Amino acid sequence: xxxxxxxxxxxxxxxxxxxxxxxxxxxxxxxxxxxxxxxxxxxxxxxxxxxxxxxxxxxxxxxxxxxxxxxxxxxxxxxxxxxxxxxxxxxxxxxxxxxxxxxxxxxxxxxxxxxxxxxxxxxxxxxxxxxxxxxxxxxxxxxxxxxxxxxxxxxxxxxxxxxxxxxxxxxxxxxxxxxxxxxxxxxxxxxxxxxxxxxxxxxxxxxxxxxxxxxxxxxxxxxxxxxxxxxxxxxx
Length: 236
Fold this sequence. Notes:
The chain is of the alpha/beta class.
């Protein structure tokens, strides 16, 4: 097989724990107001609604938005369902910053250092550049590069997004491997010509519109139970 030169990581859910960050923020707001909110349900609904909005943007049904704008619009859409939690527009802006405080899974930082000894390791994500920068600083990790779809003409899982990422790396698609916990992300990357590595997910995701599927281990170049296992397989 062609030698892999670079690894492109999905990060939302794959590397960063979005659910804990969102739940902590919502629980703090609810406690401050003396109301009860199911923070698990809120987090899942917020994530699901964001991906619905992403699908609308991909289909050009709404103007192009970046992930911060999608999260903010999705938060507005949840207001009626979670009406016990009263949030002003300014407070919603503040709550939206929870996505900038996501922490990496515990085994990832050490695995990243090992992988960087052998590969260029970058991010290829729907999330904004600022989200990735902020969350990376929270966990003390440094990438070789960050490629956000907000700077590209397409969003994942459109094939052009993966191909554009490879062009920015200056590499043919078969020398870049997409790493993710989302099967459809990897399926789309493979169809675009990239190699793929699946890592078993660390948390339960909602059935994300246009992004969820069952894993097919035989379809991936690598299958890992966690990031330490992935580094063991790729680095020896």
